[in-house]
Amino acid sequence: MADTSKVGFVFAFVVVPTIIFFGSVISILYFFGIMQWIIEKLAFLLRKTIKLSGVESLVVIADIFLGQSEGPMVIGPYVQNMTRSELACAFVAGLANLSGSTLGMYLSFLAAGNHAEELMVANSLLTATFMNATSAIVFAKMIFPETNYEAIMDAKHLKVTGSRHDSLVDAIMHGAFTGVKIGVAICAALMAVIPLIHAIDGFLFWIGSLVHINDYIATSSNKSFDGLSLEYIFGLIFRFFAFFMGLVGMKLCKWEACLGRRLLSMNLLPL
């Protein structure tokens, strides 16, 4: 687990440069056509194994490597002809996956420069990414099942568009600027969200001390929560999800605390 007391330092000198680097690498792979080839081959595998349409396969695989912002760009020319089910699948897959730059951020944050831990964390993150993609497909199809099969486009007419950059240097700089935008956005979100959450938690803790429930909350959760807070409230609301997942006792309390932080903030803070 990362030392959250050093989040500012880590972000300024480790995580943000990693995001910029991974953004450039993805852009280079796209410039040479390597990323397009990977996306097309994996999309073909999805079409044959779980019978997705061609456009769904392309966007789901693209989301794994490019994230929800740039992944849908590979199907830009086909969006106007997509069915409701295909659009839902594209949106859900985008929200379920992370870009390569964000994966690099998690790798730097969790491994902390340890090579052995980097390999372990990288394997876990890549496995989770592919699992997220297939799970997103299942949930999207459960909510919006395909009913208009006649409108589905034939996969043989689909092609991943090439790089729009004029040179390798242009591709590198575009990837770097994309990484900078992501890093600055994450830092800004941290600076805005964390103080706001602490302010609200301070007010709730004061309310809890007035009605004398903070000690009860701390004891019943075995110190997973210090008292009344937003994390505790959201943890209680979603407790039944953890129960149906088979979590009981202290695991349930820890899961509630993590879920509360995740719902309140962003992908980074539960770490």
Automatic annotation (TrEMBL):
Transmembrane segments: 7-39, 87-109, 121-144, 182-207, 232-253
Record keywords, A-Z: Membrane, Transmembrane, Transmembrane helix
Domain Nucleoside transporter/FeoB GTPase Gate: from-to ranges: 13-112
Alphabetical list of Pfam families matching this protein: Gate (PF07670), Nucleos_tra2_C (PF07662)
GO molecular function: nucleoside transmembrane transporter activity; symporter activity
Top-rank taxon: Bacteria
Keyword Nucleotide-binding applies: no
InterPro entries to which the protein is assigned, alphabetical: C_nuclsd_transpt, CNT_C_dom, Gate_dom
Domain annotation Concentrative nucleoside transporter C-terminal: ranges: 125-263
This protein's GO CC annotations: plasma membrane
Protein name, per record: Uncharacterized protein
Lineage: Bacteria, Pseudomonadati, Pseudomonadota, Betaproteobacteria, Neisseriales
